[in-house]
Design brief:
Distance between the termini of chain A: 83 Å
Shape of chain B: globular
Strand order of the largest sheet of chain A: 3-7-8-11-1-12-13-14-15
Number of helices of chain A: 15
Radius of gyration of chain B: 21 Å
CATH class of one domain in chain B: Alpha Beta
Oligomer: heterotrimer
Order of helices and strands of chain B: HHEHEHEHEHEEHEHEHHHHEHHEEH
Structural class of chain B: alpha/beta
Largest interface: B-C, 68 and 49 residues
Structural class of chain A: alpha+beta
Number of strands of chain A: 17
Strand order of the largest sheet of chain B: 1-3-2-4-6-5-10-11-9-7-8
Radius of gyration of chain A: 30 Å
Chains: A alpha+beta (474), B alpha/beta (486), C mainly alpha (94)
Strand content of chain A: 15-25%
CATH architecture of one domain in chain B: Alpha-Beta Complex
Chain lengths: 474, 486, 94
């Protein structure tokens, strides 16, 4: 059996976070009944013309900056011609000859993956099939709500050598785009999509093998699994002395296999030519600097700040920065006045635990968490009550002070009330008291527990311990 | 007769209440009724809408709320310009029943000024042709001789104005589609600078070459109308934010001190001698009015026509791809998508449209882009530079023939595409360079009109009007109305 | 560079046009005479000449990122030659 090296290049499509479409003022928001976010321009009616959304250009530049690209001073649009019912004009307006960004890179563990280019283009519509899939559908229904939503396409060089590297790159890229604020990057909603180009070559060979392109990868896990499957499939063909066919294949997640899409060969003669309805985009230094300055703090700078200014450990910092949503939330909570280290503890502890299985959205407000942290810190409630308050906030919402009040979590720190409870317990438990006095220090724990029970868990544990020691030592 | 008036005279009549817009509109509708069965200029006559618009205009005028000087003036529009709620076909079976839910900006501006829509005018299908014989519906005849073509592609727009079936009309000009029919039908015809008039809502043939143009009975009318329809449009990225002057006040500034060039390449082989002579006689008139006439050279002119046809058809192959039977237009039902696409497009498009789609597709296809498409873009650079050099050397306008011949006979060229393409030989350079050009009637040959073409620098329409006005003052506009008692 | 009937078939396929064999012969004939005429362009040396895609000097024409109402669904579907209640409708794709 020959040994093969896997060569992988990835292509990502990310929907840009604009309010309106790339060339018309229709909304980009998800949902919406079919064909309700459309106008003559995005339906490609005869005689209509595109006008470029300035914000989409700025977001594409931001993506380029986040991926260390050279932003091109002059970029232009081209028409890519092919017929398909989800493509209203039967050409896609994209950037072929002069894309907006070139030559970037992304670092993954111990390795740099080069980015060939980023270009701006319009999305196609969606086909709703009458049957289960396109294969068994008697008819299909084009919905043009997504037609002309702005996309960037990010193309890497074939620098990736394994499924694990591909997955890491995808995760890294998602995080960078999210930090840059250019896209929602939700793979399950399709706002981030990934195609894999993969080929095998005998180890030591320099020229590339014949590649297959895999589409329909809806998760990081799918990227990894599809590559692993394809490595085996192609290796088996090569082992038998066969040739891999250059083709597009689709990933079947249920079956865990890739399938040939058997597209028409000449469908690849796209006849690109310059889009005459649009004029060149020229990014001068002034505009470039404006965009650069509006770029949010990127991960490396953020890590530096969390460690030096907030005093977090490297471990905690990495865990927070790994998830942009948590990192943004962390900033908001400390902005609201909470202590940075305590905030990190809460976020990495209870909040991460509560988020398991629903990582997309934080159901609590940063200002509320700041209040809760302050309540625990000041001793107004104890830590275990704090956890219960947080759970309540996650489940039903509401502000922490309200929950503490209605649930009666306020900690008893009134010395005379506590003294009374301590004396009662001492009186009611002569045996453990005797044990303690006889040197069995473990009895202390039992007595403390009894006092907490008597106060509904709200006694200030520090004060109780001090009072009990005093009473017993008397 | 109301239908003989120019737009300027019509405006005056309406303002002085000599007649109402409804009387005027009815006069045109009656004339269309009487003549158009022979001429076939209109695809759709919007009689009911026109009478309603006219009555509304009269009401506004009585109340002192006229929308503009144009309020109540009728107009005919080439059927490639979208008119909201009114069927717009591009003279194609593909769009036979297409009713656009929006109006082209140029029609929008006229409608907002109070203009009355008489109807939609015939043309070569998708503006692809030079005789209007490529209309999917019927052929328009030249009012001066019904056995001859009116020119094309805006043949209906030219014939309607020539035959007094509209006081003015709009057309489009991609390679001469306003100027050649204006010359064939004896009207004034203007192709403005590329970007001067918005293309929004104008069904494209070749986007980098298309421009809305005007057919009128006088240069004064042409100038008035241009002021209304020009200007930057937020809906068209290629419309230019250059100020629109009130052209009509500049008309009579004369040509004294102007330098007018006669490009020698336009007077040689392939151009009828009688036409060359007639155009040169016009130069003499301009000289008498104080202009300096100089012979100039535009050396790349000979390469313009082949380059133009590749460039235009390449763009067209993409522009016409959207007609796939899915969202609007004709659909020929088949049980699978691929067959439906093919059947729809094969039956929906006429022979010439299919030929041009295939020519353009070929020029862009893998392996031919450099040799064909990119080459034409380089030729365009050279053609444009020829003009730029001329204007930089102090030439104000160029004077040339508009077409190599007068109107040719029906069917004379319809089976020879290349011969048909050759009739655009004097006009395509202007589109390639994005320049303005004005056609002024300058006489007749064998009973058929001849127009002289004046070409200007970008946005120098004013100079074209001033020069044209000198020629027009010689009363050379052919008089169709005096023939055969029409 | 003559266009063969095979080329015609390929171009027709790219253009989504179906031609009868008679039409294919006719188009091959007329396109070849046109292409022959176009061949004179090859005589012209254009090396080093920049292509002009657009005569305009315009750049950076934008719209702001503002949402405006478009067509109602009924307006959007009104010209559709075949439709369901909510969508356009196309026959079997594969």
């Amino acid at each position: 059996m020959a040994r093969y090296e896997t060569v992988i290049g990835l292509e990502f499509h990310a929907e840009l976070k604009t309010k309106s479409k790339l060339f018309c003022p229709c909304p980009t928001e998800f949902g919406g009944e079919p064909n309700t976010h459309v106008c003559p321009v995005c339906l490609g009616l005869p005689g209509v013309l595109p006008v470029l959304n300035k914000h989409a250009v700025e977001l594409a530049v931001k993506a380029g900056l986040a991926l260390n690209c050279d932003i091109q001073r002059v970029s232009k649009f081209d028409r890519k011609n092919y017929f398909y019912p989800d493509l209203p004009k039967a050409y896609q307006v994209t950037q072929f000859a002069l894309p907006i960004c070139r030559d970037g890179y992304v670092n993954i563990s111990g390795k740099q993956i080069r980015i060939n280019r980023i270009h701006l283009e319009e999305d196609a519509g969606k086909l709703i099939h009458s049957g289960e899939s396109i294969l068994d559908s008697g008819f299909s229904m084009p919905d043009y709500n997504r037609a002309a939503v702005p996309l960037i396409e990010i193309v890497t060089e074939p620098d990736i050598r394994s499924a694990q590297e591909a997955r890491e790159l995808a995760e890294r890229l998602k995080s960078l785009l999210e930090y840059a604020g250019v896209s929602d990057v939700r793979m399950e909603q399709g706002s981030l999509r990934c195609d894999v180009n993969i080929s095998l070559r005998p180890e030591g060979q320099t020229e590339f093998g014949i590649r297959a392109e895999i589409k329909n990868l809806n998760s990081f896990r799918a990227i990894e699994r599809a590559i692993e499957y394809e490595e085996k499939r192609q290796a088996a063909i090569l082992d038998e002395g066969g040739r891999v066919i250059q083709e597009t294949r689709t990933w079947d997640d249920g079956k865990g296999i890739t399938l040939s899409m058997r597209s028409k060969e000449n469908a690849h003669d796209y006849r690109y030519f310059p889009e005459p309805d649009l004029v060149p985009t020229v990014i001068d230094d002034i505009w470039m600097n404006e965009i650069r300055q509006s770029l949010p703090e990127m991960p490396e700078a953020r890590k530096h700040r969390l460690m030096t200014e907030c005093g977090l450990s490297e471990y905690d910092t990495n865990r927070i920065v790994e998830t942009p949503m948590l990192a943004f939330f962390f900033d908001e909570v400390i902005e609201a006045g909470a202590d940075a280290k305590l905030t990190a503890n809460w976020i990495l502890g209870d909040i991460s635990r509560l988020l398991t299985g629903n990582e997309d959205k934080l159901p609590i407000k940063a200002s509320d968490l700041a209040v809760l942290i302050e309540q625990v810190k000041s001793g107004a409630i104890n830590h275990s009550s704090g956890k219960l308050v947080l759970e309540e906030m996650f489940m039903h919402g509401g502000c922490p002070l309200e929950i503490i009040k209605t649930r009666g979590f306020a900690q008893i720190s009134d010395a005379s009330a506590l003294q009374e409870a301590v004396l009662k317990v001492v009186e009611a438990n002569p045996e453990p008291v005797a044990d303690y006095k006889a040197g069995k220090k473990k009895a202390m724990g039992f007595l403390l527990g009894q006092i907490m029970k008597a106060t509904g868990g709200q006694a200030n544990p520090q004060m109780v311990r001090e009072m009990l020691e005093k009473a017993l030592d008397a | 007769m109301l239908t003989r008036l120019t737009v300027a005279e019509t405006i005056k009549g309406l303002q002085e209440k000599q007649f109402s817009s409804l009387e005027l509109t009815n006069a045109y509708l009656e004339r269309i009724e009487a003549l158009d069965k022979d001429i076939n200029a209109y695809i759709t006559v919007t009689a009911e809408k026109a009478r309603k618009q006219a009555a509304a205009s009269d009401k506004r005028r009585i109340e002192g709320n006229a929308l503009s000087a144009f309020d109540g003036v009728p107009v005919g529009i080439k059927d490639i310009i979208c008119t909201k709620g009114v069927r717009t076909t591009a003279a194609s079976k593909m769009l036979e029943n297409f009713v656009p839910p929006y109006s082209a900006t140029c029609w929008n501006k006229l409608e907002n000024a109070g203009c009355v829509l008489l109807g939609k005018l015939n043309m070569d299908e998708f503006a692809m042709g030079s005789s209007t014989e490529n209309s999917a519906f019927f052929t328009t005849k030249n009012p001066f001789d019904l056995a001859c073509v009116p020119g094309g592609s805006s043949g209906g727009s030219a014939a309607a104005v020539a035959a007094d079936m509209a006081p003015f009309s709009l057309g489009t000009d991609t390679g001469g589609s306003v100027r050649q029919p204006a010359s064939f039908c004896g009207t004034v015809g203007l192709k403005p600078t590329y970007g001067r008039v918005s293309r929004f809502g104008v069904i494209p043939y070749a986007s980098s070459l298309d421009q809305v143009g005007i057919f009128a009975k006088s240069i004064e009318d042409c100038a008035l109308i241009l002021s209304y329809i020009s200007g930057k449009d937020e809906m068209d990225s290629t419309s230019v934010p250059v100020e629109v002057p009130d052209y009509s006040v500049l008309l009579d500034n004369g040509v004294k001190g102007m330098k007018i060039g006669l490009p020698k390449e336009y007077f040689g082989e392939g151009i009828a001698k009688a036409i060359s002579d007639m155009i040169k006689a016009q130069a003499q008139k301009l000289a008498e009015a104080g202009a300096e006439i100089v012979e100039v050279s535009l050396p790349h002119t000979g390469y313009a026509l082949p380059a133009y046809y590749i460039m235009a058809t390449a763009e067209a192959s993409a522009n016409l791809a959207r007609y796939d039977g899915v969202r609007y237009g004709l659909r020929v039902e088949r049980d699978n998508l691929a067959d439906m696409f093919k059947a729809t497009r094969s039956q929906g498009f006429g022979a010439e449209v299919k030929r041009r789609i295939m020519l353009g597709t070929y020029a862009l296809s893998s392996g031919y882009y450099e040799a064909y498409y990119n080459k034409t873009l380089q030729v365009r650079t050279l053609v444009k530079k020829d003009f730029d050099d001329c204007f930089a050397a102090g030439i104000d306008c160029l004077l040339t023939p508009t077409a190599p011949t007068t109107a040719f006979r029906l069917d004379e060229k319809s089976n020879d595409p290349l011969a048909m393409y050759m009739s655009d030989i004097c006009t395509v350079t202007v589109n390639m360079a994005g320049l303005p050009a004005l056609v002024v009637p300058c006489g007749e040959l064998g009973g058929l009109p001849v127009g002289a073409q004046l070409i200007g620098a970008p946005f120098a329409e004013e100079k074209l009007f001033r020069s044209g006005r000198v020629l027009e003052n010689e009363r050379l506009i052919p008089q169709f109305r005096n023939r055969e008692g029409r | 560079m003559a266009i063969s009937e095979k080329d015609i078939a390929y171009i027709a396929e790219l253009s989504e046009l179906e031609l009868t064999s008679e039409e294919a012969v006719q188009y091959a004939g007329s396109l070849n005479s046109i292409i022959d005429y176009m061949a004179q362009l090859q005589e012209l040396d254009t090396s080093g000449v920049e292509p002009t895609t657009h005569v305009l000097q315009l750049q950076n024409v934008f719209r702001e990122d503002v949402v405006k109402p478009g067509l109602s669904r009924e307006e959007a579907l009104r010209n559709a030659p075949n439709r369901t209640k909510t969508s356009f409708k196309v026959p079997k794709i594969l």
